[in-house]
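Reopening this ticket.

The earlier resolution said the output was attached, but the attachment link was broken on my side. Pasting everything inline this time so it's all in one place.
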Amino acid sequence: MITSKSSVFLLIGVAFLAACITGCDSKSPDKCTPCPAILQLAPNLNFRVVDKATNTDLFFNDPAEYAISDLKMHQLINGHPDTVFLSVDTENKRFNVRVNPVGQIDTVIMKVGNKSQDTLLFSIATTKGCCSTTYLNTVSYNGVVVYTHDKGPEVAVLAK
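Inline output:
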């Protein structure tokens, strides 16, 4: 049974929790309090690579034109290739690339077998206010936007 005294404590607890979650000082909204520990994921993109002429998947078609080991990706940091985190989802027939954000726009180079090199530009943004987080805003592939934070898609299609 909830008494009126326990209701007051419950309301105070909820208000305190809300203030802790937002990281804003309720007496002075322009001041931030310590933010709660939240696991933040690095900006990442789910994608498929298809043939430009036939729209068939280059890696997951049967038979596949390329082996998964033929896909090479590197993040450019200060003009030097560095590691990206590339994972393969064979069940959903897609890849996921995660970048370690270095700047507002990070460059990733993609090479598929003997085909020409491609450039992906990851535009990173930060939420406003207290306890801001970093997120993937847009991704362009050879100058064409293939992903936006507002519209998606869930899986970008890169035509090669």
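Reporter confirms the inline version is readable. The helical segments are 4-22. Confidence is low (pLDDT under 50) at residues 1-22.
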